[in-house]
Amino acid sequence: MSSLRAQENKQFYWRSLDELANTPEFQRWAQDEFPGGATEPDGGVSRRKFMQLMGASLALAWMAGCRWPKEEILPFARNPEGFIPGKTKQFATSSELGGVGRGLLVTSFDGRPIKIEGNPLHPGSLGACDAINQASLLEMYDPDRSKILVRREHGQELTQSWDDFAGFARSHFAGLRAAGGAGLFILAEESNSPSLLDMRGRLLSAFPKAQWLAYEPISRDNERAGAHLAFGKPLRTNYAFDRAEAIVSFDSDFLLTHPESVRYARDFASGRRAEDGKMNRLFSIESVLSLTGAAADHRVGLRASEIPAAVCRLAAELYSQAGGSLPLPGSGLEAALQQFRSSTSSSAITPFMARDLLAHRGKSIVTVGPRQPAVVHAVAHLINTILGNVGSTVTYIDEPDAMCKPDAESIRPLTDEARAGRVQTLVILGGNPAYNAPTDVNFAEALSKVGTSIHLGLYDDETSQLCQWHLPRAHYLESWGDTRAWDGTISPIQPLIQPLYGGKSPIELLAMVTGDQMTNGYDIVRRTLQPLTSGLDFEVAWRRLLHDGVMNGSASPPVMPQLSAQPISDELGRLASTTPSASEDLELVFTPDTKVYDGRFANSGWLQEMPDPVTKLTWDNAALIAPATARKLGVSHGDVVRIGAGGKSLEAPAYVLPGHPAGTIALALGYGRKFSGSVGNGVGVNAYALRNSATPHLASGVKITRTGATIELACTHDHHAIDAVGIKEIQSRIPELVREAELSTFISNPDFVREGVHHPPLVSLWTEHDYNGHRWAMAIDLSSCIGCGSCMVACQAENNIPIVGKANVIRGREMHWIRVDRYFSGDPEHPSVLFQPVACHHCENAPCEQVCPVAATTHDAEGLNVMVYNRCVGTRYCSNNCPYKVRRFNFFNYHKDTPEVAKMMYNPDVTVRSRGVMEKCTYCIQRIESVKITAKNDRRPITDGEIIPACAQTCPSQAIVFGDLNDKTSRVAKLHEHHRSYAMLEELNVKPRTKYLAKLRNRSEELRDRTFDKA
Amino acid sequence: MKTAIPDPTVDDPRVRPELILGGNDFTTVTDKVAGLVERPRPPRAWYVAFAVSLALTGVLVAMIGYLVFTGVGVWGLNNPVGWGFDITNFVFWVGIGHAGTLISAILFLFRQKWRTSINRFAEAMTIFAVVCAGLFPAIHVGRIWLAWWLFPLPNQQQVWPNFRSPLLWDVFAVSSYMFVSLMFWYMGMIPDLATLRDRAKTKVRQIVYGIFSLGWRGSNRQWHRYERAYLLLAALATPLVVSVHSVVSFDFAASQLPGWHTTVFPPYFVAGAIFSGFAMVMMLIIPARQYFGLKDIVTMRHLDNMSKIILATGSMVGFAYAIEFFMAWYSGNPYEMFTFLNRALGPYSWAYWIMVSCNVLTPQLFWFKKLRGSIPVLFVASILINVGMWFERFVIIVTSLSRDFLPGSWLSYTPTYVEILTFAGSFGLFFTLFLLFVRYLPMVAMAEVKSVMPQAHLEEGVHKGLGDYWGDMPQQHGEQGGHHRGGKS
User: Fold this and answer.
1) Residue A801 C-alpha, separation from nearest chain B C-alpha, in angstroms
2) Strand ranges for A463-602 from DSSP E
3) Segment A514-525, tens digit of pLDDT
4) Interface of A with B in 909-968 (CB under 8 A)
5) Is B257 in contact with A881 (Cβ distance < 8 A)?
6) Do A636 and A750 reside in the same domain of the chain?
7) CA A443 from centre of chain
8) Strand A639-645 with A698-710, pairing
9) Are residues A261 and A389 in the same domain?
10) Which pTM was predicted?
11) Is A422 part of a structural domain of the chain?
C-alpha cells in the first residue's frame, strides 16, 4: 500500500476492497475465487451472493452495507484498516458514451458516490470532466430508473424477477443455440469496451448465425467513412491542438461535442497562452454557432451544405498558393479540387486560411465535424497530409473495434429482417431505438414483428414499452466493466455501490444469454483484461489498474497511413455534380444536444437546467434561426413554428440566434421524450421525428411556417426581448466588464487592461483589515474559458444545489452558484461571443455584508464572505446590493420533493439549504477546511494547488485558478499581478477577491474589421 | 361675533376667517362629532364599506397564509429583483403615514390652527397606514417565523443584529414612529373620549370609554398636564416626521445600486411622503366631510390649505426627479446615467411616466384657485397622486434592481396575483381599521376644535389667532366654554 501511496499524485485514490484488504484472507480469496466451501449459486442471485461472500470473507463488506438500510448490512467485526467513517474516498472508474471512454474519479462517502470528477491519469480527461459525465451521478440515483423486470405479453404487464428471466433465458437461448443462433439479433450501443467485445465474440461463437449490430443516433459514420476513403481503413484521428498554430475547423465542435472534447479543450487553451509564447489562430466555418465557433478568431457561418465545397476550395487554394511546393498524391486530384474554386469573392476567407496554414506547415490542423460527408473528411485528411501535419499535430490510430459497422448500416437491415419475419429474438443492449431511430425505418413497427424482444435499459423507456422483456440495466457506477479512451487506453469501470435497483450490466446479460460460467461482471472483466496486461503478476496489475483507472501502455499505437488519392478524386467528382445550389431553400441541421446528448440524459434535472452554453436555453430545445432569416420569415424569438421536412412536420419554438448562418435552422436532438421519467417527459420537441436515415445530419428543402402561437423559453440570459436602450447600454458596458484585446495589442501594450475604466483613487477611510493568515482568491482566465458550463454542474454536485424547474427558470430563480455569462458583441449576423464565469467575488469590502440586518453574511479571518444559513432570515437585501448578482435565494423549499434515494447523493459537508434562505458560492469552503485540517494534522503548510474548488477542478480548459494571495509564489497571486488581470467593477471599491484575466484574440490584422459570409 | 367672510378661503389681512363655519357653537360641535359615534347603528353604506374592507382583509390574511406556508416564491420576485411589491407597498404606506404626525405635531408647533379639524383624522390614518406598512417588511422575509431576529433582543444565539444595516435602522425608525404616533393620537383623544363617556347611554360604552379616558375629569390641573405633555410629544414627534422617511430612504441611499445610491433621497423621500400623506388625507376626508356632515368643521379652507401643501411638496418631488437626472449626468457615472435613461425609456418607462404625470403634473392644477375649490378635482387629483406615489416607489425599486451592473443578470419583474391581492388586501386592512375608527371614535378633535372657535376667546372678541404663546392653547375652554360638557362632568 505504501508503494501505492508514493504515487506522483498527492491524492490517495483507492478502490475499496482490493487495496484495503491487504490481508491474508484477501490473498487467499484472491487466489481462490470461491473460498471457504462456497459454491457458486446459480442464476440471478449470484451477484448478491457474491457481494455477501466477499464481505463476509473479508469483514469488509461496508460497501454492501452502505445503502439505505437493507438486509445486506454486515456490521464490522473489526474496523478495516484505514477506514474512517465519514471520510470520503475517491475511486477510479470510467464511463462510456458513443464508444469512447472517459476516466473518472468518483468520490464516495461511506459507500455512497457523491461526486464525479475527471481522472488526471486518463488521457481523455486529464482530471477534467464535462457536464454530462458529472451529471451521471444524478442518473444513478434517479428514482425513475427501472427497478423491476417487466414482461409485456398479450397486453399484460407482469413483474418478473431475475430468476424468472434466468429460467426463461435458459430454455429460450438453448433453443436458439441448437439452431446455431439463426434469428438471433443483438442491437447494442456502440462500444469499444474490451469485455463487451469479448462477450460479443463469445456470443457469436456460441451462436454463429446470430447478428450483432450497433446503433448510435449521434453517429461518427462520416468520420470513419472519410478515413476509409482516404486511407482504405477506418482510422481514428487524434489531434494535438496544443502544438497547432493554425487551426481550421469545418463544422466541427471539437471543444464541446467531440468525444475527446475535454482533452481538446485543455490542449486548445494551452495553445493559447500568450505568456508562454503560444497563441494559435482558430478559423471556424460552421453551420451552427458552437463553442468552437465562439472561441474562433475568425468565424464564418455557412450552411452545412456549403461546407463541403468550402473544404475543397481550401485544398485547391492551398495548391494554388503553394505554387507546387505541396506534394500531390494523385494526378487527377488537383483538377478535381479546382472545380470548386469557381466562386471566389472579396468576402471569402479561404485565401487567408490557406496562407495561415501554409505558414504553419506541420503545425496546423484542419478538422471536419461529424455532420459533413465522408469525402469532406477525406479532403481534410488530404490537407493535413500535404501540410505535413500527420505525425505531429495529427495522428491516426486504428479504430479499436475493426468490426464496427456504420450505424446507418445496422438499423435498417435489422428492421428489414424484422419485417421479413426473420428476427426471432432481438436483444437490445441499452439504447433506445424506438425513440431515436430514423423515422423511415419505423423501428416501432418493425419491433412488433420480432418474435421475442428483450431490452436492457436504465429506464423503462420508449423501446422497453414495445419489448416483451424489459430488464433493468445496472448503471456504470454500479457495475463492472471497461472502456477504451479516444486514444485506445483501457480503463476499468468499477462499481461504487451495489445496484440500487437490482440491474445487470450488458456483459452480465450476455453471460446469461451465452450461458457463460462466469456470470458476474467482475469475473468477466478480469477474464478479459488478464491477457491484455503485460508480464507482471495479474493481481498486481489488476490492483494497479483499479487504483490508477487506466491501463498503462494500452493506448493504441499511432499508425502512419498511406493516403490514396483516387477514391477521393472519384468522390469529389460525385460531390461536384451534386453540390446543392438552391440557396432559397432552408436547411435543417440536427445537432446532438449539449446537455441531454441524444436524449438518454433527458431525465437529469442538472442537465436540463444547465443552460446551453450558447443559447442559454434550459428545459427545452428550439429551432435556431439566424436574425436575417427570422426577419425574412417574419419569425421572432419564442414564436412556435411548424418545420416541414421530408413530408413530416414538427412544431418547435424559434430561437433567433445571432451568428447563426442564414438559410439554415438547427434543432437539437434528444427532447420530446415520452418515457424518460418524470423530469424529462415532454420537455422540448422530438427532432427525431424529422430525421431520416438518408438525412441523419441535414435535411434540405425545409419549410417553416408560423403557427401564431408563442411560448416563453426558459433562457437564463435575455429572458425578455431587450429594448433599444438596453442593447445600446450592453454594447457600451461589455468592453469594461469582459475585457479583451488582440494579441498584437497585448504585445505592444501589455497593460492595456488597466486602461479600461477611469475612476477616482480607491481609498479607504480606515485602516483595512490585514489578513495575516490565508487570503483566498481566485483568478479566471477569460482567454482560456470556452464557456462549456462544466463548472456549473460541478458546483451543483459539490454544493447540493437544487434544480428549480422550468417555470422557476422563466421567473429567473435558477440557483447555480456559478453562472457563465454569455455576451455577443458587434453585428448580430457576425457577432463575437464572450463568456464570463461569474461566482461570488468574495469582496473584501462586501456590499452584501453591510446591509444584512441580522449579520447572516459576514467576513471570516481569511477574507471569505461567508453565509450563515441558520442566521439568515431572507430579506434579500444582500442580493439587491450585490453588484455581481451572484446571490441565490431559496424562493421555495426546493429540496422538499427530493426522493429519499437521491438524498444519498448530497455532499455531507455542505448544508442543504431550506427555503427563505440566501445562498451563494463559498469558494468551496468545505474543501478549504478539509485541506486545512489535513495540513494541520501533518504539521505542514498548505501547498499551492492543494485546495481546488469544484469549478476549478473540473474546468476542461483550466481557466479557473484558486489559491492563497499571501503566498506570493502561488499561481493565483501571480495571476492577480498579471498584466491581463483586472477586477470587474473595481471602481466600486468592493475589492473583489476574484479577478479576471482579459481575453486575448488572435485575429489576423488585416481581417480584424472584416466579416465574412463566404468561405 | 359672527362676521365670517362668506368664502373661508379668501385671506383678508384685516380679518381672520373663521375656521368653523355654520354658526356652530360648542354644543353643536360636540353633538355633531359625538353624535356620529353615538348613533345606535351606522348607515347602511358603512356596513357595505365595512363588509368590503373586511373581505379584503380576509384576502390579505389568506395571501399571507399562502405565502408563509409556501415561500416567497409565490410572489414574482427573482434573483436580481429581490424586492418588488413588498417593499414598494411598505414605502408607500409609510409615506401615507406621514401626513398625520406632520399635521398633528409640526403644524401644532407652527400654530396652524386649521389643523385641529383634521388632525385626529389624519393621525388615525397615520396609525393605520403604519400598521399596513409594518406588515410588509415583516412578511417579505424568507423565514417569517424568524423576523423577530431583526430586533435587538437578547437571544440564545448571543448575536446582535447588524447595526450597520439600514434595514435595522428601518425597524427602529418605523417602530418608534408607530409608538409615538399612537401615543400622540391616543393622548390627544383622552378629553374627547371622556366626552363620549359622559354622553354614553349604555353600560358597555360607559365602561369602555371610561377605561380609555383614563379618569379624565377636565380639571385645570389635568388640562395643564395634558397640554404640557401634548406639547412635549409634539416636539418629540416632529423629528420623527423627518427621520422615519429619511431612514426608509437610507434603505436605498446607503446601498450601492445605481438609482438607489444617491444623497438626494432623504429630503426627496420626506417631501414625497408628505405629498402622498396629504393626498391620502384629502382623499379620505372629502367623502367623510360630505357624508358625516362635517362640512362646517372641515371647511373648504382646510382643503385649500392642504392642496397648497400638496402643490409645494409635489413640486419638490418633481424637482427631485429632475435633479436625479442631472446628478446622474453630472456624476459622469455611466451606470447611474443608464439607470435613469432606462427608467424613462426602458421596459418600465410606462411606470415612470405614470409616476411623472401623476406626481408632477397633477399637483400643478392647484396653482388655480378655482380648481382648489372644486371637490371633484381635489378628489380625483388626490387619488392620482396616490397612484403616482405608489409608482414612484415601484420605479425606484424595480427599475434599479432589474437592470444593475452586469447585463448578464438583468431580468424583468412581473408581480403575481398573490402580490396584487396582498396589496389590495392591505387597503382592506387600512379601511377596516378606518371604518372602525369613524364608527367608535371621535373623528374630529372636539376639544381642540373648540379652542380655535371664537367662543373660546370671548374676552378677545373675534378669534384673531395672534394670542400669546399659550393663549392659543385649548386650556381656556375648560372654564369658559360652558357648553363643553366633557370638561365638566
Assistant:
1) 15
2) 469-472, 481-484, 490-493, 586-591
3) 888 888 888 898
4) 914-918
5) yes
6) no
7) 28
8) antiparallel
9) yes
10) 0.87
11) no
